[in-house]
Please model this.
Amino acid sequence: MAHSHLTEPSKVLERQEKDLKAFDVHSAESVEEAPSQESGQVIRGAGDITNLIISDEDNPELPVLTFRFWVLGIGLATFGSVLSEIYFWKPQNAMVSALFQLIISYMLGNAMHYAMPSTGIWRRLNPGPFNIKEHTCITIMASTASVTANAIGIVATLDLFYGVTLSPEAAIFQTFASQLIGYGFAGLLRTLLVWPTYALFPNQLPSISLLQSMHFSGLLNRKKMKYFWFVFGAIFCWEIIPTWMFPLLTAFSVICLADNGRSPVIRNIFGAGASNEGLGLLSFAFDWTLITQAYPLYWPLQTQVSSWVGLAFGYILMGGCYYADVFQGYSRGLPFMSTALFTGNGSSYNQSAILGSNHQLDPEMYAEVGPPFMTTTYAMSLLLTYASMGAAFSHILLWHRTELWEAFKGFNFLNIHFRRMKVYKEVPQLWYGSLFIVSLGLAIGMAYVGMNTLPWWSVLLFTVIAFILAVILGFIYPVTGFQISTGGFVQVIAAYVHPQQPIQNMYAKLYGYNTGYQTFAMLSDLKLGVVLHFMD
Model:
């Protein structure tokens, strides 16, 4: 395998044992001092958060795969996946958040503990209080199932727009393959993107803090939970107002209200009350869902400042390019913001009219219909996405190439949570490698079932592209919490490799983009397991 040089986890553990013994003494003392408000210690960077803020408390004897885990995990996973699948086909997307599943599973898990007998044979079903490890496993299982697989959209697109109906077997197995390839990548990349201290995964910090506060004793944790339930109840009651009673409060602009729709320029720059209405400059939102879209609770300050600068630059660039008639969006009367395709006169573009009977682009029909046009803002957003990919590669190779090389050789994982994981049996690299190989073989096989979607070499090519993107962008995501979308970038490559073939483009994106997305999701869950000392 191309990844055989990755260091075996057990060997890394042995290599670090001597360093960790010395490090543990310092870390244990620091952890004891962390809750004290009198210590005056300033938290700087991922190392301090990992070793001082996140508790290293652990009990290896706690049961994990309990009856409660299977009942609540399967039940919440089913609920989340059904709801996600229903809303996947609606204009308003909705999904069950991991935070909701974490909270509801805590309530249901404790209810099962108190309601079920715990003596005699019932001890097997109710082995004790609802603990943090089974709680975390339930949350991971339910949240993973609550995200619709991209392969489902391709199956539906083939049926609705191309008249191609895949067999149930082909649809199911290609969905499994596209998901599990990313899981195999994640296991192979643990040395680089899970174990090191710099791989903080800020998106997991709220869940870690809440889980530890729910299950660990201590005055500080009790205060945290009291504050959490107070805020939770307040937000729950408040959300009724912008969601049902007074939707105007979801997002509104005082400037737009004063203008009263008289100026399209005002609407384009300051509008934000409806989807694609405008850039939303100086607009306000009272809906917690919109307020947290910028992740203010866990993004590092450096990431937030960078996003604010980018946001300011985006206001100037989008507005300036539109009114300067870049890409002819303004002169052709195209909307200010839209992701749809349009004809030269601004009407909706009929994409089916340019496809031949073989589902490929027909040059004669294309010449008759004419080229499609994108809105200026959408075209600029795509160009900036491509630019961000180049910037990400340059940044990592210029400033972090040493960390990349050291991680592949066997990085120095000096944090107390990594040491706590030594008492648990390692998941071999061979398991993840085998999962990757089997999934890749399944993907190649399914490409020839029913219809030829991609040649075998193309599946391999875009799987390699997904792995490269996972390594480079995966280095950015765990550190900053910022995730760069690679979908458009992969589609451009696919259009070059498979010109005038839209079906092949969709499948190339499936294996070049979706597998990387699944890699990030799995890496994040693995980090959660390492920090809470139960999974690797």
Observations:
- Confidence is low (pLDDT under 50) at residues 1-7, 15-39.
- The chain is about 60% helix and 0% strand.
- The CA atoms of residues 119 and 126 lie 8 Å apart.
